Amino acid sequence: MVLGFVIAKISSTSWHLIHSTLYPHPSPVSTENSHLGASPITSVDARENRKDSIAEVVRRIQIEFAFQFSANYLASSSKTDESNISVNGTFLLYSNDPFSNQQIVVWRVNSGITYALICDTNENLSLAEYVLEVLIRVILDNMSQEMTAPKILLEADKITGILHVFLPSGTLLFMNHKIVRHLEKELEAILSAK
């Protein structure tokens, strides 16, 4: 099961969260100390916990990206622009840091924009990488212009529609090219109805 999908602008020195979707089942670590008589967590507190959890995931992706960039591109003699490279990776989030259960993050940087899936540890990682690749391609195909942070923010409804079709309720779908084409047609119907 996928717990979340994230889009962020990342460089080797900074990050900026652009879009995130958390499915209902993630449980960020609670700061509540019920045994001390603390008040229960409100929906505002839960939202802040989710935001903090996503920010921690993006921060860790930025660290991984910076490491890969420095290891692979700074050693070469030619100057490489960070926004033109494509790198990917996976890493483990341990229990209670930032979610209550262990999670695996599958991420890919494409033209300076990072896309990531936060998955259960028992999820098929090859399938998660393939679904992320398909999601990126479909998002790029459905954005009317160049992928920039403001453009992504303006077209958040398209991203929501894409996730609804290709990642329904956080479920990774086994897809071949025929299923992808069928889902693309379903997406076209949804987007044209708006």
From TrEMBL:
GO cellular component terms, A-Z: AP-type membrane coat adaptor complex; cytosol; late endosome; lysosome
- Give the highest taxon in the source lineage: Eukaryota
- Pfam families in UniProt: AP-5_subunit_s1
According to its UniProt entry, one GO biological process term is: double-strand break repair via homologous recombination
- Cross-referenced InterPro entries: AP-5_subunit_s1
The family database entries (PANTHER family) matched by this protein are listed as: AP-5 COMPLEX SUBUNIT SIGMA-1 (PTHR16120:SF0)
Q: What is this protein called?
A: AP-5 complex subunit sigma-1-like
